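User: Can you help me understand a structure? I only have the sequence.
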Amino acid sequence: MTQAVALGRWISTAGPRRVTSRRVLRKSDLLAAAAVIGAPLPARLRSAADVPAIHRPWCLALAAGLLRVEDGAVSAGPALICWPPADADILSAWFSGLTECSAAEAGPGPDEQDDAAGDLLALLRVLQAGHVPAGQALVHTVQVQAWNLREEFGLEASFSWRANEDTVTRVAARLASFGAVSGSDALTGGCVITPLGRWAAGRLGTLLAGPGKDLSAAELIAYLGECNERDRFDHAWAWLDAQPDPVDAARRLLVAGAPMEPRLRWLATYVAELLGADALPAWRDMMQVPGIGPHASFALHEMGAGPEPSAEQWLWLAVESAARALAESGPDEAITVLWDCLPARQLAADDLDHRAAVARASDHPSAGSLAQAITEHAAAAGLGSLSVRQCLQLKVTLKRWRPPIWRTVLIPATATLTTLHQVIQVLYGWDGDHLHAFRARHETYSEPSFGLEEADDETQVRVQDALNTGGGKIVYEYDFGAGWTHEVALQRKLPRDPGAVYPVCTNFSGDSPIEYQEEEIWYSDDAGEPGPGKPEPFDLSAVNGKLAALDGAEETSLQKAQEGTDG
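Assistant: Let's start by predicting it. Here is the structure, written out as tokens:
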């Protein structure tokens, strides 16, 4: 942890550094990084990812928010501003670093990452039991424990099929570097689990087991706070299905969530909302409860069972959303959320100070700390660095076409993947009648109503975050049968012109192909040979007219309901 903080402070002082496609430092910066944390460098190396002494604190710094990789460069992360946090947050950051590092060393795919968690737990449980054998006997014991995890959790730990002296030694060394065990020579019995390792074993077991039906509402909320977004839905429904009375379940969730921090309170309302109309009596009961009342008013309004929330409640919910974003993603995202929830057309000025003042006037308990955090961040980073003041120049290329067909487009840096989907539909004239998905390396995003497996909600992901995950490029596929595949590449970031209309197409090459060629009329060319109907020439002015109609179209239900109210 000390090394991770040192890396964060070094980048904060030295300035952003370019990173490789694997999101690690380039060779030219390794000597300085090694000196900062006192780590030796091998005489020959291919990548920083091959140097555990640097890569492990690097993974921890990224997981803890001490560093942030964006646009092919690493900069100081939001957590560095108020480091150190509370003890519980430090433990959570340490645990995230351990699991992220293990996943990175195991391999790129989700299966390998699940294997990594199982391998950690298998070895920790063997060490936790005491009387640890040595050599091949230890390898066999670890393998048996891995098979037990398969029976217990349905987890395919790689130790169950490829445990050997080398793999066990590597996992033990990783645990030792994180302080979960003392000594890394597991094969000779010189490896002993530490209190931190016992705590990690318990945390891993809890996460892998999933929420049991006997969890209290508060325990479920805390558990979901540790899960990744993709697993929350399944775990929440597993708990709800085990409850005999949906109204009582919703009521217990909302009562438990009311005094919690915004991030966890949002999870409480998220689970209650899954019950739909079945939870209406519970929402009505919560109308006057501090912390939950505005959420209840919003939920009832959304279900057509109550009036629109008051202006004061909308403001409270705006601060709640921004405070949650601050905790999860840092001050830049909090500013973006505040910009979304308090649009300029409802305020006297389009500036951060005004929004901070409006937020501070709310009776939300986090209003003061939120306003302070975002104004301090803006002062330190500079207004020009904020996402709300930037736009992205993207090149959208239709793959596998010769001559190349591409368009260059400017979109706000705050746009989500849903907006990008709409933009690409306009750029290429697609009719939108088919499924689509975005892919960024091993992550997939799509419209949640499609029900695509292993796909995250595209409406909740900003384009620039997806580009960061994809190393500056993502893929958009439309119509899985026809396979219209587009590469979206970030060319550069530009200052956002407050008087301009976004999105806007600035350049192009080639006409868009016909979407349904088999339905087109066949014509004869000059040689008398048949050929498919030719596409309409690309009309830049007409396309930009359609793109202009998208400006402001992507609004949350919170924004829509705010229209016409006094900010």
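Now, to help you interpret it: Residues 521-531, 554-567 have pLDDT under 50 and may be disordered. The chain is about 50% helix and 15% strand. Let me know which part you'd like to focus on.
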